């Protein structure tokens, strides 16, 4: 029956059907020659890439295909599990470990200013840089290629790569139609430079997810980050916050509630278009038994306390209760999929922290 539909109607139906992870598009391409051709332009409306192999393969495809992809929704995740990353590090660290052993041996025999010791230090630095390149360059290059290929039509993006790849996403990227960005890897920040993402006036929703496996701190987004690449932002969400109160004091300054101090001198004002800021702390750390200097619960309580004070100071700020357990692995994928299916970009604010500061 579908074969009898006019191509324009068929394409419209397929456009709705292809808003999942890509499974429907792949299936449609196998039904018949007519449906294969009719669905071609909308088959890649939504793309999900999980793992190194899929990202590298799709980058090759996007670079060489004659098809106009017109992708609007992209979920890209190459973040390895802790076990996988530790295994990669063990193999990548071999030469650096050898260089450090040699440096230690020389320091036991020679003066720290000896030329051979300095050469050994340089060797350690070289091997460390080679390790970072080995762990991150290939994926970073593929991700940049994909974003460049899909950039003209991309509207919703969820991105997560490991810290080594994230540090190498250095080339300027233009996403002129991007509306919603969830970043779980520091993208689009660049070390010692303005963000890689060019100013994007269409960007309205920004969700920054904190993680311990990254090279940056969340507060770096408030230092000529958000104000640079999202000049018309309306909704900002900071989730899984797990450091100390610095990110909150930076945010207070960025909202114009206090004057910059020497600790927040690099903070830039958030766009005047900001209507809502949503904060959520990570799962509380377990009680610590030992010296107070190693007690993570102290910093965590300070983070929550400052967040409550900020909430009471600015009506735009809402604070959510922290989860009692770590969120499920597919949480962010489900959020992305709901938006790709056409759900309104609206964050759940039903579980508010209403405790007094």
Could you explain how this protein is built, in words?
- This protein is of the alpha/beta class and 357 residues long.
- The chain has 3 domains: 1-43; 86-130, no CATH class; 172-340, no CATH class.
- Helix content is 40%, strand content 11%.
- The protein has 12 helices and 8 strands.
- It has helices spanning 7-17, 23-28, 33-38, 52-64, 82-92, 94-107, 115-150, 163-166, 226-229, 246-254, 296-313, 331-340, and strands at residues 46-50, 73-77, 156-160, 180-183, 205-209, 235-241, 276-281, 317-320.
- The chain has an 8-stranded parallel sheet, sandwiched between helices.
- Helix 11 (296-313) links the parallel strand 7 (276-281) and strand 8.
- Helix 4 packs across helix 7, helix 6 (94-107) runs antiparallel to helix 7 and helix 10 (246-254) runs parallel beside helix 11 (296-313).
- The longest helix is centred in the middle third of the chain and has 36 residues, at 115-150.
- The chain is globular.
- The termini are far apart.
- The model has no long low-confidence stretch (mean pLDDT 85).
